Amino acid sequence: MIDTNTKIKVVLVMIPLLAIICYNFAISNTIDLYGQHKELSKNESQILNLNQRLAALSSREAQVDSILKSFSLNHNQTENNLISIFDGLKNENQVFVMDFNPPHTVDLDQGTLVTYEITLEGDFSGLLRTIFELEYNHHIGRIAHVHLQKIKDRRTRKSKLQSTLYLEEYK
């Protein structure tokens, strides 16, 4: 028979041995699976967030497309022609383009009326020659209104003449 001291010693040796065996088989696997679960739940939240972001981006894309469609890109050719005309006339007439606003478009029964607002600066005779060249020689449209304004530059103490043209084109 084995005495109690020996049984106690055997039990004390077996307890750490059983703990190591249990750790190797059960606890380490549980810890690994818990880490994988944590990583997968993080990826799942990212995927759910990705779907929300994708939906937001697709709605934003649709919104931007509708805004871009509202802009009429047919005016680019006329605008480029106007810029090249003013570029050619600036040396000849000493007239400079100060402002070239986007065109204003009105839909009419007969077609579309496109109005360009252009601000020029120069002397009176140069402005008149430029307006004449623009309306009669280049046939882009008709001048609907010309507003001349004398502006005094307080820094240089010189006066400048600015002209705002409203050029109408029917399409």
From TrEMBL:
Protein name: Uncharacterized protein
Organism: Flagellimonas allohymeniacidonis
The organism's taxonomic lineage, starting at the top: Bacteria, Pseudomonadati, Bacteroidota, Flavobacteriia, Flavobacteriales
